Amino acid sequence: MSDLIRIVYISRATFETAPAANGVEPNVARILSTSRTNNRRNGLVGMLYYGDGCFFQCVEGDRLKVQSLYKTLLKDPRHRELKMVASESIKRLSFPDWSMKYVPIDGHMKRLLEEHGFATFDPYRFDHHLVERVMQLMQGVADPTAPDIEARASAPARNIDCDEKAITARRCPTGSGIAKWALAISVLALILSVITLVYVMTLS
Ligand SMILES: Cc1cc2nc3c(=O)[nH]c(=O)nc-3n(C[C@H](O)[C@H](O)[C@H](O)COP(=O)(O)O)c2cc1C
């Protein structure tokens, strides 16, 4: 069984933010492209947020591979002040379909920051609770840059409990499934009523 870990780190971009092309800052788009190719090869998964000149990234996978990537990241001149905000062993990957999910700046993130008294995305001032909330939010937000499978994987969660189970079981009971059972039970009850009625009428 492989030894899996999750790390979450923050950093500051060293480049000036340029106007977005196709919804993503061009430097970030290049980082995403390399990340997705390499991570797929190395069996790593993760999520990346970029806002107000700061990165917030979560990476999961084999311990040695994640640690090796982090050493590479420390040397990357496109960011500085890397700070690990979480590192833990995990039993399974939380988002196996995302080689590197890109999470855009959106109203949900802005509202979350406002709720905690932040006017900008400043992860260096986040406490443990806010790091967790940001992670949860990142998991539920759709990735506008991801084609097919990654886009499907990043569709907003309808039900958190169900979603957690679906991550491990890869399935999720739907409303239509429950409706089918209810219909079957109703039909059965109707048939039993008719049989009882016919029986009573035959007796009388
Ligand atoms: C914020 C940030 C996040 C990155 N995330 C990843 C990543 O998840 N996976 C990865 O392989 N490279 C990532 N990189 C790029 C690496 O630092 C490094 O440039 C790359 O792994 C080199 O790959 P190459 O040898 O194929 O060019 C990231 C860089 C930055 C600045």
From TrEMBL:
<protein>
    <recommendedName>
        <fullName>BLUF domain-containing protein</fullName>
    </recommendedName>
</protein>
<dbReference type="GO" id="GO:0009882">
    <property type="term" value="F:blue light photoreceptor activity"/>
</dbReference>
<keyword id="KW-0812">Transmembrane</keyword>
<dbReference type="GO" id="GO:0071949">
    <property type="term" value="F:FAD binding"/>
</dbReference>
<dbReference type="InterPro" id="IPR036046">
    <property type="entry name" value="Acylphosphatase-like_dom_sf"/>
</dbReference>
<feature type="domain" description="BLUF">
    <location>
        <begin position="4"/>
        <end position="101"/>
    </location>
</feature>
<feature type="transmembrane region" description="Helical">
    <location>
        <begin position="181"/>
        <end position="201"/>
    </location>
</feature>
<dbReference type="InterPro" id="IPR007024">
    <property type="entry name" value="BLUF_domain"/>
</dbReference>
<keyword id="KW-1133">Transmembrane helix</keyword>
<keyword id="KW-0472">Membrane</keyword>
<dbReference type="Pfam" id="PF04940">
    <property type="entry name" value="BLUF"/>
</dbReference>
